[in-house]
């Protein structure tokens, strides 16, 4: 399936304005302002100025919250988003409810406590973000994330991402009914199902340093029709398949 | 992945000589000669004249066996191949070791006895054969079948086929290691992994008439690389991905 750009010129616009560039602008801007966010349950709150508001929006981190404050814009970041800015991009500090800045390990433990699968989810999130894929929550499609080639205002999400780990059979896609239900759903919303299997390679999750030892196996799953593949031979050779 | 034709002109040759046509020639020829094969353990032996030798070869059923007989050519058919000619194409009779022609139900029971997963394998085999895919045993790739767009002399096999059924967890691809091993193997031999999940929909396998009630869900699984999908954007749009 090809990327579905939103209207004419969207692709050119995306190519001219690479996500890697936008993210590094955001990174240096947050560094300069010595930005600090606040833990708040399962999300992280960050107050920024106009310039950073624009950068956070263009880089697609978090969502703005309407407040009474005129001079500041608040953003609500998901756990993976916040930890990515803090631990991977090193451009955000995060303070706990006690207003003291947490170190990486404490932050990791806090997030693990709030979200059991956080280590796997974070590995998957950072794995794709580092490759400049834009990730948003996949809740409305019943998956873990949706992945965009560029900003959602320019392109539809291409992949419905499910994060799998070896741990037990509690996970997704263990039974065929779930499997096919998910594949069909993805097809109906023109997304490809992308499975990221996070393998901890025997390393635990006691600290974020374990992340380097995790590996990620990716595969896409697509419904297949015997007729289509034969009749449209030409079409399929042109990549329309 | 596109079909990999064997040398120039192979594709044109295949298009000019559709498999459906070849198979129906074989069908009428076997009907005319009132062909009868013999059960022999896990395979079925068929003796044919020169014309049918050529048709069986072109339609890619069974493999020729060298014998001392000058006037006849013997073919060794797999269980699915033989049952397809007998039950689905109705152009072959099959006699048991007692030399009496077996009816469909007895034949079905015999084959089930020889091969526990025969009902699922046959459903998968016939499902693809009816769509004019050519199937050969997949043993050498550690899969159930390999599927060709046309005769193996013209094109490389495109799909490595694994047949899955709901029954128990004894089946393939239940653990990630097996899953990834299979996907990687398929990649290394330039085949796409095609999973056919045969659902008996609660109907047993007491007689071949159950086959009509079975349904088949197909999906392909492909390894995915985050870089490739982004960097080669153009290439992937041309279907090279």
UniProtKB/TrEMBL annotation, chains A, B:
The tRNA intron endonuclease catalytic domain, residue ranges: 121-202
Pfam families attached to this UniProt entry: tRNA_int_endo, tRNA_int_endo_N
InterPro entries (UniProt xref): tRNA_endonuc-like_dom_sf, tRNA_intron_Endo_cat-like_sf, tRNA_intron_Endonuc_cat-like, tRNA_intron_Endonuc_N, tRNA_splic
Protein name per Swiss-Prot or TrEMBL: tRNA-intron lyase
Gene Ontology biological process terms from the UniProt entry: tRNA-type intron splice site recognition and cleavage
Domain tRNA intron endonuclease N-terminal: 37-98
Gene Ontology MF terms: nucleic acid binding; tRNA-intron lyase activity
Gene Ontology CC: cytoplasm; tRNA-intron endonuclease complex
Catalytic activity field: pretRNA = a 3'-half-tRNA molecule with a 5'-OH end + a 5'-half-tRNA molecule with a 2',3'-cyclic phosphate end + an intron with a 2',3'-cyclic phosphate and a 5'-hydroxyl terminus
